[in-house]
Amino acid sequence: MSGNDFKDFVHTNAGTYSSDTWSFTGTANYNNIAAGPSTTIIDVINKKDATWTTNPASKTYGDADPAPLTTGSGSNFVAGDNVTATYGRATGENASPPTYHITATLSATVPGALVNYNVTNAGAEFTINKRAATWTTNPANKTIAKGIAQ
């Protein structure tokens, strides 16, 4: 539509903005919108729903944690935000159960980008598997009385 004059529209993050002004000059098909030269409107930029999926991981008891700890992927993020994750897990070294929860900490190359999302990020479980063990017993004799071997 011609005649639009949008001012102060610099918002890029999700939120409610109540100080924007705009005016519309009528044309043959449209009337002026405001009684004065401009009016205040409320802009609302909704957050985008997105999900980060963390993959479960494991190790064998006694081994170091894998590096990286695990992997994951995001869905419904804006590609230009370049959302990535680093992973950590609850402390503990006992063979599972229990399992140890893995959390994903998200970051984006665009400063402040993550505030624009409702992120579902459930994490995953880290399992420590039992280590196979072998025991070798060497044959031996024991003398329990002088001259009597068992």
- Which stretches of 5+ consecutive residues score pLDDT under 50? none
> What is the H/E string?
EEEEEEEEEEEE
- Domain tally: 2
Helix and strand composition category = mainly beta
Describe this structure in words.
The protein is mainly beta. It has 2 domains: 4-46, no CATH class; 49-129. 0% of the residues lie in helices and 44% in strands. It has a 4-stranded mixed β-sheet, with no helix packed on it. The protein has a 3-stranded antiparallel β-sheet with strand order 1-2-3, with no helix packed on it. It has a 3-stranded mixed β-sheet with strand order 6-4-9, with no helix packed on it. It is rod-shaped. The relative contact order is 0.19. The mean pLDDT is 84.
Short description:
Helix content is 0%, strand content 44%. The protein is an all-beta fold.
Keywords:
three-stranded antiparallel sheet; mainly beta; 150 residues; 0% helix
SSE layout and pairing:
Blueprint: E1 4-7, E2 15-24, E3 39-45, E4 48-54, E5 57-60, E6 72-75, E7 84-89, E8 100-107, E9 117-121, E10 124-129, E11 143-145, E12 148-149
Parallel strand pairs: 4-9, 5-10
Antiparallel strand pairs: 1-2, 2-3, 4-6, 7-8, 8-10, 11-12
